[in-house]
Amino acid sequence: MTCDVLIIGGGSSGAQCAHYLSEAGLDVVVVDKRNIGEGSTLTNTALIQYLGDKMLFELVNTFGEETAIKHTKLCEEAIRDIEAISTKLEIPSDFVRRDSLYYASYEEDTKKIEAEYYYLNKHQFQVSLLSSDEIFKKYGFHKHKALYINNDGEINPYKFNHGLIQHAHQKGVRVYENTRINGKKLTNDQAIFYTENQHSITAKKVIMAAGYENLEFKKEKNSLLLSSYVVVTNPIDDFSSWHKRILIWETARPYIYMRTTLDNRIIIGGLDDNTTNPEDRDSKIMYRKEKLIAECNKLFPKLDIKAEYYLGAFYGGTHDGLPLIGEYEDFPNCYFLMAYGDNGLVYSMALAKILKDILTKGTHPDYAIYNRVMKK
Questions:
Q1: What is the DSSP letter of 4?
Q2: Where do the FAD dependent oxidoreductase domain residues begin and end (predicted)?
Q3: For residues 22 and 19, what is the distance between their CA atoms, to the nearest angstrom?
């Protein structure tokens, strides 16, 4: 078959690209080696935030204030886009606006919180700086200092994924599950990708949206693979001690994060490490499970919780703290979308929007921020 754009990967990044390109009227094909959304999207805990694991003041130090603030504004805009799009999909994605509490894990981390607040406040993000007394008054636990961030969110990423793909399919996007790519022929004019069941797809342009599995197609020196761990608790009857059911995370690295769910459970995740061996990763799950439950109990000792579900999973990150898009010299007409980091779903939305303009208009003013792939 032939098409304008082939999207390899039907998870979060691929689904969001398919949505934007279907709205632009392009002839699009999506292929995924699994069922739709059953890669890393299925393990996404979906705290929808515009701040990332590399703090804003650190991004300022690395990229300069203008670029760091622009990236953060684009993430804030991406959350608005996720909210707006989710309301239009036939499959409800359970998007809810939630505020966030980002606290200093150690006394020396108060300087990090203050530096973060300086830039957020300077550029008019909706954020407050809370003292130790204010934290205790609202939440009942002691922390040295924290940021209170308005209008983050949460979502069911799997349902959002399927809602996007369904909507794109209704607008003409062809979608093929269980279709593994095992060969390619690339020229300056077109790209031909071959499937293991001996079909070929000829496209003018290709978006590589296979999550961290993009690295199976092309190694990227700025990327790194991490392991993360998560538990989902039993349903909780009373969240009165959890002010506004906000998202919670911390300055420690690796950090702990928590959020509640639509069916009144708690997702507790984090304790990331650099393990890239699945057997090694999975051997740590039981210890990490107990540690995550214990961390939640420190903050909310009155909640009677236990881990009903728990897992370890891989996810991609970058060394410099920003996601990536771009072309490699040996992959002409192919755009690699690597929404790597703890805000992958938000990054995917921002990068998919940029790629839509690249493919339909030939340019986007913010492309250079993320076009940092090693060319060779």
A1: E
A2: 4-357
A3: 5
The overall pTM is greater than 0.90: yes
Contact 95, 155 (CB under 8 A): yes
Q: What does the alpha-carbon distance between residue 112 and residue 220 come to, in Å, rounded to a whole number?
A: 30
Largest CA distance in the chain: 65
Q: How many CB atoms lie within 10 A of CB 62?
A: 13
CATH number, domain of 108, equals 3.30.9.10
On whether both 238 and 346 belong to a single domain, the answer is: no
Tell me which residue of 132, 129, 130, 111 sits closest to 121, measured CA to CA. 129
Residue 374 has pLDDT above 80, yes or no: no
Q: What is the DSSP string of 278-309?
A: HHHHHHTHHHHHHHHHHHHHHH-TTS---EEE
Taking the alpha carbons at both ends of the chain, their separation in whole angstroms is 30
Structure tokens at 337: 């979308």
Q: Which residues of 323-350 are buried (b: 16+ CB within 10 A; e: fewer)?
A: bbbbbbeebebbbbbbbbbbbbbbbbbb
Same domain, 139 and 168: no
With vertex at residue 15, the alpha carbon angle to CA 315 and CA 10, rounded to the nearest 5 degrees, is 65
Q: Alpha carbon 297 to chain centroid distance? A: 26
d(CA 179, CA 358) in angstroms, rounded, equals 26
pLDDT tens digit string along 122-165? 999 999 999 999 999 999 999 999 999 999 999 999 999 999 99
For 289-303, how does the pLDDT look when each residue is reduced to its tens digit (9 = 90+)?
A: 999 999 999 999 999
